[in-house]
Structures are given as structure tokens and as C-alpha cells.
Amino acid sequence: MQTVTVLGATGSIGCNTLDVISRHPDDYRVFAITGNSQLDLLMQQAKACSPRFVVVADEALFDDARKLAADYGVTADILCGQRALEEVASAGEVDIVMAAIVGAAGLIPTLAAVKAAKKVLLANKEALVMSGALFIDAAKQSGATLLPIDSEHNAIFQCLPQDFEYGNLQSAGISSILLTGSGGPFREREISTFKEITVEEACHHPNWDMGRKITVDSATMMNKGLEFIEACWLFGASADDITVVLHPQSMIHSMVQYVDGSVIAQMGNPDMRTPIAYGLAWPQRIDAGVETLDFSKIASFTFDTPCMERYPNLKLAIDACRSGQAATTRINAANEVAVGAFLNKQIRFTDIAVVNEETLNKMEPMTVCSLQQILEQDHAAREVAQQIIRGFS
Prior knowledge:
The chain is of the alpha/beta class.
């Protein structure tokens, strides 16, 4: 029996994690679940999985959460705030931490889990985008196990040699990591009409069921850009080692190309329960509740090269990756602000890339080495992005 803390339980990854855990009640016990604003769903989850602790990130909602817990008959201790998130991520009783808080808010509690040498299932790509070397160094020092949960990185992990050593792609005979992406809902839409894209259109992904922010990122392909940065850190790769490939069917989740001409791919239906189950049970495999591929019903697999005119955010993210930590921290922060403004209908879809590029251009190059500097750059980039957005209005 292993105990699990689910950071970000009310998001799509968190919900799918609890679904997989519920299928294996003799193997996993939920220690804590956390959420931010979806209190009803959080308490429904607590009623179903009986954790010891429920954490509400927003301290202003603490009283509402306690009242709702009583209404639902939840017996777990109700905690709130940043410190509580760190405590349930690093508690001695916890074996596994699912890091699924979306955005920069997930960095500190995920880092707490890493420093406590937990088995960390990393679904929060922003943690590595923001803090890269600091995050990886912390994992090496503590002995934490990092298992990628994003379907693409999980696929790459499965396609690597079992004896793969971090950063040694050449000695492992690897010529390239092929990072696949669907291209989102606007892969074939006329670029001249992008200014007319609505929030509702951008929030409808053709293959995946995800939260609104991540779905918009998939439409702009910023999500792939952030995954590009994350892949560099996860596998010790350079930007030249990774190629983004469009694969609209989303059934090949990523591939590793070897110097002998071989390409090893991980395939499956587009369902996040597969990588979640793999992470929970690694190095074993367990039932995830996912249907296997029926090859008799697959018409075709197609591949293409992404057009950077169509996906300027992808280019911005790759360029930031080459520039260094300050740039990746800044573009992640600016993008969170820009996507939020788009979802609130303050700016157009095409303005997201404009805000991101102008934020990077307005800030001086610098080297960041500490967590404090990373957080300062994150805050500064958000302020610059907000100023740019105010200029639009």
C-alpha cells in the first residue's frame, strides 16, 4: 500500500489520477488532495477517497471550505494556504506526489516534494520551465524520483533505453527526440482569420479533454513550446536534440530516433490515465481503465512540420529555451497573464503571442541562479505583460 498526495486534484489530471487510484484500492491510499476554487468538486472527491487532509490553496476560501466539508460529511482535516500545500507534499507518510497544479503556482509545493525525496509524478511542466537547473539539482541531491506525466514526455521516457543516463543521448545512440503535437483546433484554419477566433473555439480541443488554460495553450502551441523546454531539462537534452512533429491523430505520443535508423514510438488512445497509471506503478504496469488501440479502425497516421507563422508562440518558446532560464521563466509568466486576458475577453487570440514577445523584448537579459531570482523574474514579467495588455484596451 502506497500513500499518495494529489496536488491539483480538481483539474483534469487530478481527476484522472483519482480515477486510476480508485481502480486499485489495495495498492494506493490517498493521503491528501488539494484544490483552489472548485470547492464542491474538492469535497465530493474527499467524500469518495477519504484523505487525511484536504488543502485549499486560497486562504480566503478556508471558512467556506470548512462549512462545505461539514455539509458533505467529510472527516478530513481542512487546511489552507501555501505552507499547507508544501506540508502535504513533503509529509513523511507520503510515498507518491502527483504534481498537477497548473501554472507557476505549482512550483513551490512540487519543489517541496522533490526536496523530500518523494516519487514525483510531474504533470506541472511550469516547474521545470521556470526553475530548470535548480529543480533538477534538487532532485539529484535528495534522490527524488522524477517521472514525467505529460503524455509526450511519458512516451519519451518509455522509449529510452532502460540504462539511459541523464544527458547522455549520444552514448545511448540517440540521434533525436521527436516531440509530437496535434496542432490543435486551428491546424488547417486560414491564418488571416485568427484574429476572429473566439474563446469558445480555442477551448475546444479535437482530441484531448483538458482545462481551459492548457487547451488554449494547445491551440497556440505554446503548450508544445513549454513541453520542448521541459524535455530539455527532463532528459538533459539540448534544443538541437529535439524536433517538434505535428501528428493530428494524437495516438503516437512521442518518439525517439536512434543512430542506426530505428525509431521507437509509444502509442495509445489519447487518455491521460495511461501515463498516470504508468507513473503510479512504475516500473510495473497496472490497468488504467483505458481501451487499447484497435488498429483495424485506424484510417491513417499523418505527420507534418509546424509552420511558425501559424504558431508564433512555439517559436518564442524554443527561442527562449536557447536564451536561458530567465527567458523561459518570463515567457511562462507572460503567457499565463496573456491567456488569462484572452479567456476574460480582454485581448484577441492573436494578441497572446504579441504580449509574450513584447514582454521578452522589454526585459533586459540576465542570469538567474536562485529560487528568489526566479520568483522575482516571474513577478516582473507578469507586471510587464499586464502593462502591455492595458495598452491594448
